[in-house]
Fold this protein.
Amino acid sequence: MVFGPISQNPRRRPAACLRLAGESVPWLSQHKYVGIWFDSTCRDIFRAHYEHKHDTAARVFWKTVMGCELYVGRGRLPADVSCQLYYALLDPHFTHGCDVMLDVDPQSFGRLERLNRSILRRILGLGRRSGIAQLYSELGIYPLEVRRAQLALRFLRYLLDLPASQLAYKALAESDCLRRKNKSSWMGDLALVLAQLPFPMPRLPSLARLSTTVVDSLLADLRHGAGRWIYNKVNTMVSLPLLHGRLEPLKDKPSRIIRICRRHYLSRVPHTNHRLALTRLLCGSFFFRGLHSHPERFAQETLLCRRCGEAPETPGHVFMQCRARETVELRVELREMLAARYGVRLGNTPTSRRAAEDLMRDLIFHWETVVPMARFIYGVCKTWSWFGRKLPSMASELAPESVDELERSDGENSVGEME
């Protein structure tokens, strides 16, 4: 292997060829060593490894996770099972070699990150137009860049525990020396990775000021910073009004704010279509005319509900205030079910958007009433034709022709599937 491009013309290659044990060593541009691919002709020497892991993860996903849906049906694999398969089969490929290959090249890491997000959207049943922050807040899975940075910091903590006579520790000391001289190094790349995260992180100190206690503090800051960033992103997105300030219900404990976790409705709602309808509503996959960052820029008549035309079209109005005949009938059915089975009385129809959305949060983020509420939401969504086409029952109907098709797939029931 040589550094730089290898000419396709044999005459332009060096005449002398390296020989080892009497055999000539061929000229190579890529080589695999201790499980990691190196590319000497690319700006990022680890680009080939990122590409190999991308293709492997996509292939594993389609042959395992989607293979399970071949038997149970599309979208019917519980989120708990999907997340277990993700951590067991996909996470090892997404994080392989991340302690050595730090994500300083956006092009190499970007393709791996896009595949990761596509898989999380598939697990939740969302289209590709859905946002990003809610993928992590609803599944309890940290962003890939945070996960890989966490493993790199844990590797640094392992190196700091080694005796000074160990070669790995000596290599760490040399890397720190190169960093202080503003040269390319592993320590410098790790500092750059922490600085490029979408939330503030303390600066990585030099080796003389590093200790396992400092690294443990950085790991805690990493998790807390990622949680705050995701929580703030969700609470500032206009398309996610029902997730603003929500309290996560617990079975035997009072509800409280949990920034990142696997949400209760993913396991509490047994019916597949009911769970998908609720998930897509909460995650902003349905289009509402009245949800805009600057509604004053639009004509008032373009924001009104398309069924009753009495108020801006928002989730609270569509589900709890709209006087369309089908919606009213479903609301009466919900009222009777809540009173008969759960002892919950809805009271009068909310008179404001805030009251309507607060009522929906109270019913959705409740350990028991989330089940009838999901059924009600699915019924209203059907009347609005938000489940555009019939869900295929076999995963083979959706299998891609290549591993790259996973990223280009539109998914289903995305924002653009409104009538």
In short: Strands lie at 19-20, 23-24, 30-33, 36-39.
